[in-house]
Amino acid sequence: MKQPTKGNAKNFSVVNHSVPRTDGVAKVTGSATYTGDITLERMAWAKLLRSPFAHAKILSIDVSDAKRQPGVIDVLTGNDLGALHPYYGHAVKDHPLLAIGKVRFVGEPVVAVIGEDELSAQEALDKIKVTYEELTPVLDVKTALAPGAVLVHGTDYVGGAFRGFDDFRDFPGGTQNICQAVHVEWGDVDAAFASAAHIAEGEFYFPMVYAYAMEPYTAVADYDPRGLLTVHSCAQHPFMVRHDLAEVFGLPLNGVRVIVPYVGGGYGSKSYTKIEPLTAACSWKVSRPVKLQLSVEEAFLTTRSDDARVYIRTAVDRQGKLIAKQATIHLNTGAYAENSPMVCRKAANRIVGPYRFPSVKIDCLAIYTNTAPASSYRGLGAAQITFPVESQMDELAHKIGCDPQQFRLRNLAHSGESIHPGLRPIDADVPGDIRLAAETLRKNGPLAAKHGRSVCCSASDAGAHPVTLAMVHVYADGSVSVMSGSTEIGQGSHTVLAQIAAEEMGVPLEKVRLVGSDTAITLFERSTGASRTTTLMGRAVMEACREATAQCKSMAAELLGVPASEFTEERGGIRHGKDRLTWPEIIERYFQMEGCSIIGRAYLRRAGPLKSVPVFWEIGVVGVEIALDEETGKISLDTLVTVGDVGLAIHPAMTEGQDLGAATMGLGIGLFEELIYEGQQLMNGTLLEYRVPRFSDLARRVELKLVENRDGVGPYGAKGGGEGAVNPIGACLANALYQAAGVRVRSLPLTPERVWKALQEKKAEVTAPQGESSEAPRIRAPKIRVRKTRS
Amino acid sequence: MKIAFELNGKPTSLEIEPRETLAEVLRARLRLTGVKLSCEAQVCGSCTVLVDGLPVSACTYLAYEIRDKRVTTIEGLANGAGCLHPLQQAFLDNFAFQCGFCTPGMILAAKSLLDENAHVSDEEIIAYMNGNLCRCTGYLGILKAIRQASAALQANGKAKKARS
After folding, report:
1. Which residue has the higher pLDDT, A137 or A8?
2. Å from A85 to nearest chain B CA?
């Protein structure tokens, strides 16, 4: 067996060790502050009246009774926003902070009431009279794409902050209900399919799901008319929120301060701007600080994942080598673009998987409908497409009579091989990861009846656009502060970044303090997502520390009167002959002053080792063994194996925790999570009706493996993790179900009802004449004309 | 109306509105923000506090009901000297949380379980804790933490017995 750890852990004092979390004591004693725990002097509360219609014109809004209610300070409607730039969006500026003239989904905010307290604001909502003229809603992607379809938007919007970056160069706009179109193509797909020995094809459906960060969206805004807007928010990307707020209020970047305290879960759902502009507009209206705290029911209607209908076909030659893939992906993006243009881009890239394909033709559309807006969800498009990709890999293996694992190993790209022309070659050992997962699973012994096993994988172009700035203060008393714009959303970045600083500066971890996201203090970091923080912010902190020590060396050279080349660097300082000077000693001696500090800084951008994109390939490798109850169709998870190919685990226990957390979210989607619309209404938008994984869903056996080949561009060869394990689970479950009972289900979640029906259909088939009825109905990839616009 | 109760071991009396929930009173009036609100429908367990040692969902429990009772919140768990409760230490040692939003409720529910019987099986832990959701960890770290605290409390119990 291959030795999984190549890294020499003995070289490290702090990193690669599972040290206590720096936020641990605060979180177990209840003293950790989240946005909802913040109360400002004279703070008012906002509550929202939401649209009862999926698509309607707003004819009139009468707020006179509401304004007269005791405790009500003022009311804000779309008619009050004339002095602002009320449309925001980092990709497409299509989202009004309150509905303006029209509503586009059930639950869209229409009126905000600002009250002295929560109850006064809440009670006044009943006094508001809004008259609507209902319009025909567009409730699914098929209707949205039909010729002559009603338009959700009907106008082209201005591009947001990312226009021209991150592949948002072309977007067709709202005039066809197409929010974003992405085409990926290389090789001659038509010729390959014509010459193929075997082809598998089918249509798959990945459901609409809700991330359920347990802390619902919350913001506290304080608009000072002298030109400073301060917003506390649970945002993952405070600098993106700052950009949107600056544009909405016409303020300079230094006129907007976004502060992010501890965040109660994100999983992508708190990426980019959410309720911050609306909260800020309420504060602007009443000239007082305002808190807006959504309920979980409202959070369901704020952001969900894009559900995906995927038509896919894959071809192999006579030797069982993959020769072509063609896919059409339709994402239901809901009423506003949010980050779905990026989900669209990434789904199109990631559907290739970690395999060698000589020819590929992918079309992905993000489509507007009159449903709640979709945006980032852990995995960003990868979970949606890994289910069809890896289900079809098994189908194809069975078709050619090959073991699914051998079939994968035959076609997987090895480290250093390219899977996408023009992108960074694979920087991971995917075949090794697959073998490790399979070996671990095999330790369960012979497969019991009605059990099934499967190992699946995914490859995601991760890290997002590499612009990450960091700063460290090194104090003369030996303490160090890391100023980081990365948000601590639970992933443990405040611990990991402190470990890196402690390692670099040669100080104990307790001496390092993390100064978290505050756009007035910390330097720019594009985002906290795409598994980038360890890789990019970690590298930035490492470089910033090295810049600080380089300054110390120059200072020491001056102090000692010898060139820096004459002394040697040791952990925590330098040695020159018998003299040893620590970094803090050098700083104190240089300034001849106690209490001094110096700053080391690093500016990472798309250059040098970060020129090639993606920043790294995030590999997801998961193995499962399931037990099927044929009477009820219920699947339970017997064994879960994850393999985190992370280069170097800066904090092994938290890295494993990320994999288990991601896999558990994947399990939820695989087995029971699905938002259900009936007509215009979301039917199960509460925790009473939306089932997420519970304690009792924990697998009997859990094995969390780490592979540390130090092959990433992050600090000490580290790469990110935390999203990979969510992606393969759906296919793992479906493939294991096929092994257990011989039924192929191409829609998630694999609820007992869906599985039981499939089992009954198979029974009926066995007694009826043989046919192809178990195959999904063949669906032609629709041809869609997309108008290109140039930026 | 005025109610009197014991809060984290201290006698407390307070003016409340009859409609107020325990979570509202603890968070807004007493600034005990370790009580976290999420589903507000008794599903997620994040607002769990102990009333006379038993777990309740503070989101839907009327504050009126705590009169003359003992209320324990996460803020009351570590003793005055800053010494963590064995469950708090076990949650730290086992990385039994990430974002930490479910943690106060999770620890208090587990405390109620172990207070009743420190000697618990995995099956008992899983069944008892099924009403507390965690979206980050996948539960394994929490299970390990409760096991560790269970062992620590049993050892403490034995030590106390031996001394007496």
Report:
1. A137
2. 32
Rounded Cα distance between B30 and B49, Å, is 14
pLDDT at B1 over 70: yes
pLDDT digits (tens, 9 = 90+) for B5-43: 999 999 999 999 999 999 999 999 999 999 999 999 999
Question: In chain B, which residues have their Cβ closer than 8 Å to the Cβ of A661?
Answer: 98, 135-138
Q: Which of residues 115-134 of B touch A (CB under 8 A)?
A: 125-127, 129-130, 132-134
A473 and A643 in contact (C-beta within 8 Å)? no
Q: Give pLDDT tens digits for A423-439.
A: 999 999 999 999 999 99
Q: What is the pLDDT of residues A563-593, one digit of tens each?
A: 999 999 999 999 999 989 999 999 999 999 8
**Summary mean pLDDT of chain A:** 94
- Residue A129: is its pLDDT beyond 50? yes
Residue with tokens 């935390």: A722
Per-residue pLDDT for A769 more than 80?
Answer: no
- B86-159 matches B2-76 in CATH topology: no
User: CB B137 to CB A661 under 8 A?
Assistant: yes
Residues 35-94 of B with CB under 8 A from A: 35-41, 43-44, 46, 73-75, 77-78, 84, 88, 91-92
CA distance A670 to chain B (A): 15
Domain segments of chain B as ranges: 2-76, 86-159
A 282-311 residues inside an 8 A Cβ radius of B: 295-296
Catalogue all structural domains in chain A, each as residue range(s) with its CATH number. 9-32+467-605 (3.30.365.10), 380-462+612-767 (3.30.365.10)
Q: In terms of DSSP bridges, do strands A304-305 and A374-375 run parallel, antiparallel, or are they unpaired?
A: parallel
Can you name the CATH fold of B86-159? DNA polymerase; domain 1 (1.10.150)
Q: Which residues of chain B lie closer than 8 angstroms to A654, CB-CB?
A: 95, 98
Residue A171 phi, psi (nearest 5)? -145, 140
- d(CA A546, CA A600) in angstroms, rounded, equals 7
Nearest to A492 among B43, B46, B98 (CB): B98
Q: In whole angstroms, how far apart are CA A55 and each of A151, A172, A338, B11?
A: 10, 22, 18, 55
Class of the domain covering B2-76: alpha beta
